[in-house]
Amino acid sequence: MSPQADSEQRKLLVEVHNLKVYFPIHSGVFKRKTGDVKAVDNVSLDIGYGETLGLVGESGCGKTTAGRAILRLTHITDGTVKFRGQDVSSASLAEVREMRPSMQMIFQDPQESLNPRMTVASIIAEPLREHMDLNRAQIFDRVHELMDAVGLNRDFSNRYPHEFSGGQRQRIGIARALALNPELIVCDEPIAALDVSIQAQVVNLLDDLKESRNLSYLFISHDLGMIRHIADRVAVMYLGQIVELASRDDLYERPQHPYTEALLSAVPEADPVVERSRQRIILTGDVPSPANPPVGCNFCNRCPKSFKRCFTEEPALKQVASDRFVACHLHDTQV
What we know:
Number of helices: 11
Radius of gyration: 21 Å
């Protein structure tokens, strides 16, 4: 059963079914294809209107690639992505361009994602010039309105990105993403490159904008504490696959997959008494290569609860409770 099956009562903005993104491996003198890097492998999830779905996992597990594939910023090998019921995965480039104003992205590194030769006003105005028929005065007013919305001083509109701090640069990226009044924003680790003192400001800004503009977020991060603050539901990803998908409170209070348990055991507690008694789950070994994943469960070689079946049969993501999906043989009735 797919995650969409339990979502009939929710109005869905995004529906992802069996998404695959493979990158070919070429080797030898003639550069023949000898395999694939399975960056995203059979991922299914959905995002409702006004909802924030957190996507968490270790670095290199495919989170960013999945987010970019949903927006058609990277090639989709197989599967379907629907946005407001329209198939993004098979749409022509012209059709994707028409959908683009409603689907935007905030990138991880604001230093790299902003053109150093453009002023702040030009950066924020670029999508307006590309997709909207506005005169110069209207663009000027809209840029100032967006700068106000993200907490940037209007007087800085003619400055260049290098003249701003990391937090201010990320606010410029947020303003650019908001320019076309999108419904979905993919936030690709938007606080990872920022100082800890600035991270909370940016997350609170995103939270406020979500409420005031009725936005939906796919919030990609490896910071479990921040995901708990901002997400409504959480999907846990490992080696290109979703291993657990549940509401935020259920997942943090009662993790069902061994990998989720290990991740949450690493989150420090604010209470020193609880922190001293906290039991860490230390995973052994390294994350396998997505070019050569293990036979059976991708997590079997590191899982402290693995058994014989885990090494021979790949578990499917299946529903184990209301709005909770787990890919683990421990929850299979045949065990």
